[in-house]
Each structure stands twice: as structure tokens, then as C-alpha cells.
Design goal:
Helix content: 55-70%
Distance between the termini: 26 Å
Structural class: alpha+beta
Radius of gyration: 16 Å
Low-confidence stretches: none
Number of domains: 1
Largest sheet: 3 strands, antiparallel
Length: 83
């Protein structure tokens, strides 16, 4: 693989990874434009678009929201993609 092909591969891989991270955030109600309000039915029943989040998803969502409030959506997506 020559240098040009390697650079193109790396660029495409990075773009795909960022898109996948954004898709996962969207599944829990978080986009660059807004953070969807979750419907809370009890201390352990949180719903986004009618789908109940698992305990792990709920904790990850809360951490993600806190980090977005701290440094912004784009930086969080970049950080997550490289982790």
C-alpha cells in the first residue's frame, strides 16, 4: 500500500468511525443539535423514543451528557472515536 492509498484509507476509516459514534449517540437521544429529554417512569426505567434504556446505556448517556456540557458535542465525539 503506497502512502497515498494509506492516507485515503486512514481518512475513510476515521470518517466511518465518527459516523458510527454519532449513530450510537443518536440511539440514546443525543445529536449535535439537541439532547432529547428522556421519559423517566421510575428510578430504573428511562425511555428514549419508546425504547427503554438498559442500566449501562442510562449510565453512559448521563456521562456523555455531562461531558458534552463540559467540552461540547464535536470534541466528545472525537474523543470517543479515538478511545
Amino acid at each position: 500500500m503506497n502512502k497515498s492509498a494509506l492516507k485515503k484509507f486512514a481518512t475513510e476509516a476515521r470518517k466511518e468511525l465518527l459516523e458510527r459514534v454519532e449513530l450510537q449517540a443518536r440511539k440514546i437521544g443525543i445529536t449535535a443539535e439537541s439532547i432529547q429529554k428522556a421519559n423517566v417512569e421510575s428510578s430504573d426505567a428511562v425511555f428514549i423514543d419508546g425504547r427503554q434504556l438498559s442500566d449501562i446505556e442510562r449510565r453512559q448517556r448521563n456521562k456523555l451528557i455531562a461531558r458534552i456540557n463540559e467540552i461540547g458535542f464535536e470534541r466528545v465525539i472525537e474523543e470517543t472515536a479515538y478511545t
